[in-house]
């Protein structure tokens, strides 16, 4: 598994809402400024499914990031399987410095692990910036 993390200076309730509500997901779920998220759907419950569209702003490429939840513990943890079967685990932990998010995911085999780590970390960094500035 590949693991990334960040600490967000915000209350856990805000972090959870911004992570899980579609109207917020579309504001941060992309890896670079030349991409954006056109829409998101989220049925946040075990067995529920989610879809987040990620697209290049120049319309040259887009894809749906989708999966199914296997664990949902409000303000604490989320686990899901991506459409290709890989597992993702996310924990939310209150600390004196804010909410620590630790995200671990099974790597895919097409791209180097360092590239995958950098892409997922960039999305997590976008999330931190979005939460702390809104």
UniProtKB/TrEMBL annotation:
What residues does the Activator of Hsp90 ATPase homologue 1/2-like C-terminal domain cover? 9-132
InterPro entries this protein is in? ASHA1/2-like_C, START-like_dom_sf
Q: What name is this protein filed under?
A: SRPBCC family protein
What family is it from? Belongs to the AHA1 family.
Family annotation (SUPFAM superfamilies): Bet v1-like
């Amino acid at each position: 598994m590949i693991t990334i993390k960040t600490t967000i200076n915000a209350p856990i309730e805000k972090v959870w809402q911004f992570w899980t509500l579609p109207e917020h997901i579309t504001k941060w779920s992309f890896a670079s400024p030349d991409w954006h998220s056109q829409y998101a759907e989220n049925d946040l419950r075990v067995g529920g499914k989610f879809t987040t569209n990620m697209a290049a702003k120049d319309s040259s490429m887009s894809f749906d990031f989708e999966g199914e939840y296997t664990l949902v513990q409000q303000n604490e943890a989320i686990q899901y399987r991506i459409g290709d079967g890989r597992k993702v685990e996310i924990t939310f932990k209150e600390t004196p410095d804010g909410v620590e998010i630790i995200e671990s995911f099974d790597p895919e085999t097409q791209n180097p692990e360092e590239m995958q780590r950098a892409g997922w970390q960039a999305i997590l960094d976008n999330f931190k910036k979005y939460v702390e500035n809104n």
